[in-house]
## 1
Amino acid sequence: MDELGRIARMGRRRRAGRPSVLLLLSCCLSVPPFLSAQAPFDQAARDLASTDPETRLRAAQQLRDTAYPEAALPLARAVADTYDEVQLAAIGAELNIFLAEKVVTRKRVALVVEVRNQILAEAAFTAGPAALGALPVPPEVLDALRFASRDDNPRVAIEALYAFGTLGFVPAGAARRTLLGQSGPDVAALLGTQDAAKRYAAARVMGRLFARRAQDGPIDATVGDAVITALNDSDRAVKAAAMSALGAMRYERGVQALTDLFAFYGKGDNAEAALDALARIAHPSSAPLLVAQLTGRNTALRAIAIEGLARVGDQARLADIRAAADADRSDAVTLAGAFASALLENGSVERIAAALTKAKLRDRARQYVAEIAAHRASVFAAQLMDPDERIRLDIVDAIGLAGDPAALSLVEPLLKDRDEQVARAAERAAMRLRALTP
């Protein structure tokens, strides 16, 4: 660990030199698949330690394209390389190793047209946890990415930060507690940097890493309060990301600040973001504010309020929720009403499962499934046998994210699902749930 830190500090020093023109051009290229047979893994791993930056770059690019799991540890050192392009190739390689769908960075179509694809950490992060495969991520890889997020080069730093946020979702149980304890102060500190893009990335990563799970302990106040401070950021995107993070973290110390923001904005995107964060935290003190939105004119706020009241868990609010749903037949409000019914009175989940096949409702429905599954995964047993593979896929992924080890018996039969994507999702879910089994 100390060695990784030492190498990372070297990488943060002002570079005395830069790669040659040939090196800069070669960063846009990757080794064609047929070359992987000519340069085996062990040679590429040795080349990562070469004194020649072009050799190190080619090795990192090759390992990026072949995505050997065994390359994860050798590449961790390359993430701290003294040359930016080697670092970026190594970060892309680490991502490609752990993505469910490997990215082919260079291929030919009809032997004529060359198609090039980049491995961008922000895109992988935005795709969400379902983009990851079932491989465990070594802590050395996460440490290297975390150290690189403080690199002098903003591009390297942000790529490393998003890669850390993407792969940092994987650990569970004791490994997750260790990761959060070590990384929380580091990522929170980035919320105070001068670079707005880096602050935005840090807020998003905080929301992903610290999103509340059943086995999590309390969030360190220093870490959580840093996100509250980011609510005052001059950049609107950073402010919105901070609100989202507080909601995902269910950080109760943020309730008052979020309530004040909602009162200040009253309507619009910022008001919706503040109320959504309050609805996710679901502190009982927010119930009156949520109830007040049930009779307002704003459909988005009404749906958010229904979600929040469902999470608060007060069954006495069911009558108010039903009245609001009856008065507003929009898809979002109807779906939120089904979510509330499922949480508060063990209602049917069929409407929620059906929404998984609708593009505009899918993300919200998947979130509902994960939240319900955290308490009663067994209610989705019928949906796991649905003839529509889209429903099976999203249900099994959501159950894996819900974090109830008892749901493993529901997931395991889908390891042999006739649909390849569903089977891979079941593999991911099983890996996550087994990590939580005592």
## 2
Amino acid sequence: MKWFLGALILIEIAMGRAATATIPAATAFIDDASLRFLPPDTRSVAVIDVAALRNSPLMQDVFNRKDLLPAHWAVIMASTGFDPQRDLEKITVAKIGTGDSLAIVRARFDKFKVEQYLKDHVRSEVEVYLGQTLYREGESAYVLFDNTALGGQARAVKKAIDQMQLPGSQPLHSDLIAAIQTIEAGNQVWAVGDLSVNDLSNVGVRGPAPALEMLKSLRNGTYQMRVDSGIHARGVGNFADAESAKNVSDLARGAIAIAKSQVAKSQPELLHALDGIEVTNSRATLTVRVEESGDLLKKLKDLKTTIERNFR
């Protein structure tokens, strides 16, 4: 679905770059415009506040570089006037029911122009559901509202349309609400809810078979990341038992220790970056904290560029 490509690009960029500072004590929340689409059987939620990321010093160069967008986006922007680096506001991704995914994208766009582009350039079937026009591509579907777009499995999109028809939003599951309340305000990227090794694979997390086997006991967790001039991130995973949490924690700390020994002399910047990663465990809970300065990130970026240039 080309409409969501810009959103996915910024998700990838945002998850790979982040920030640090004092985090306020207030907690995060799901905005009402997105909440009205989430049914009670929502199992997990991830939020990327793109507008807030756009204002952070560390991300300024990302949002100003048009070369980060695929070449075909020039045609999309010319046809619709929609620029994902300028017009995206917030992305909410939810896992619903048995595992269907729903993306709620809030952005500034001309609905008429976008719909015209879809009709002219995108091969998709059109279905009308409860008065809304769904664009279908196999099992996937998306629908446009004023400044909001939904996408995902057709079942999830239809369930979101059902939800918005209700006079009042039904409450999300109490465990999910409790998890959201652990996320501190000011984090531009955060996620809470049920997790599995399949979910990690779906977002590109790969690893050796023994590590993935250990992660099969992962039940739920939270992730929060703040971006300004450096990195401050924290992930908490709750496992089925204390032994599983300890095994994964030991494996992670061992990997970090080996990496440190290998780069201690040759790549001091990378060593400092590894020093900013802390892995701890307590009972069935594993916690990973990451704190990196913007200056260090820039050095690592320059080092990566140099390595790539030497191996071309």
## 3
Amino acid sequence: MLKECASLANSGYDVHLVIADNQGDEVIHGVQVHGLQRHHTRFLRMLLDPLRILRSALFVNASIYHFHDGELMFVGLFLRLAGKKVIYDVHDDLAKQILGKHYIAPTLRAFLARLTMWTESFTCKRFSGIVTAVSFMNDRFSGYNPRVVTVHNYPLLSEMDYHDQSLRERGVICYVGGITRIRGILETIKALEHIEAKMLLCGRFEPPELENVARSMPGWEKIDFLGFLGREEVGKVMSRASIGLLNLHPYANHIDSVPIKMMEYLGAGLPIVASNFPHWQELLGPLDCAVFVDPTNPMEIANAMQTLINDPVRCREMGERGKQAVMSKFNWQNEYGKLLALYRELENK
């Protein structure tokens, strides 16, 4: 989100970011950030935060509004009815995502997923444009709106400056991101029991009590848990590691995704042990920069990691191929032009 804002600001736009982050107002990379207080409970955030965001957005009085959070669809609709140009930026398939939410009762998930699809259908027909983060969603949203563009959330080439290859440590694996059951944390810890390795784990446990389960497992002794880190600190973690792990379970919202962490690992020069999703194999297989595994099989994960640890030359060569792919193709500089073209088109209407 800030990546898009900063890029637009660099292109000469007066950009304001309204966000409920408890951080207050500040200017970051030329972007005026309006930081609102965030409610502590999920129910109040869903109920009241959109109203506060709408009030602040109206105060800004922008000519184009661009929102990412599916909970703000009706905020976007209100702005559209007020005569504003509105872009909905779809980073996740919300309906599929709901099916994997642990905090929603299983009996409600299917109903809420269908309701979400209906809401998207109703609102997206009225928006000025749709941005999707992965191309597989284009077919669906093109049925709602004639102006749909895919802008992949690839890393900035400038973020390569965070990586110092001289810090690389053999036998060190890293995982960066949300730490949940469906992102494979428990299978990962079980896999660590069977190999000689150390894992740098960065992120937040969700739900928080999952951390107690993880710490009770024998493989936890091989984990250095670093918590939530900023961009520069994450870059240093990736510099120390020799392998990146992306062991997501085969949930609907994962199978067709292109996680930003996948490209960030590659940009850091790390070979990846990744879930054996067909889409991922099609994307990365020709580059020979990843080993694909059954994400629910700890022994298969362990064998893949140990094989790479035992062959540092292969590790280095795979990492270099991945890094070159990011430098030439999978980067934000290549994607931003499509977003800028959409803004120019809306300006001229």
